[in-house]
Specification:
This protein is an alpha+beta fold. The protein contains five helices and eight strands.
Length: about 180
Amino acid sequence: MVQSALMTTAGPLDKNGRDIVDSGTVGGGAAMDATPLAAGAGLVLPRLAMDPGLVYDAGTQDYVDFLCTLNYTAEQMRQFVPEMSTGCGARSRIPKGVTNLNYPSFVVVFHSSSVDGGVRTLTRTVTKVSAKPETYNVTFAAPEGVAVTVTPTTLEFKGRTRSGATLWSSASRRKER
């Protein structure tokens, strides 16, 4: 829960109020603006993380299932889970693949040879951490060439409601050549 609180309350600007730069890329002698993958969640803002509103709560078993879904061997798994004497075997895996780890960020890959028309559906479950009633409305900026649908568009929490699910569905609009 702490990791999610830090990620979801991080800011897109550096400590000086400027765009975060990627010091690993240089264009014309200066560091270039960081891409979302290079910037990660952004600048951690600890005060905001104390009251994050909603968190994406993933536990130890979620991460074990994530590694199993990536087909880690028994030997590789024991590096992270020493008490795991066998491989994943029939162990539960993340339904519909690794992109459905209950994690606050999303990465979607569209394959040009996809048989499903390039549609990817991701599901996240959020947990409200405060006791007061709150309403959250979805806002997002879809990348160029991608249509995004979020259901529901509003999450309303009354009292001590613990969680609500959000379904993100993305479809590539790129034309095949």
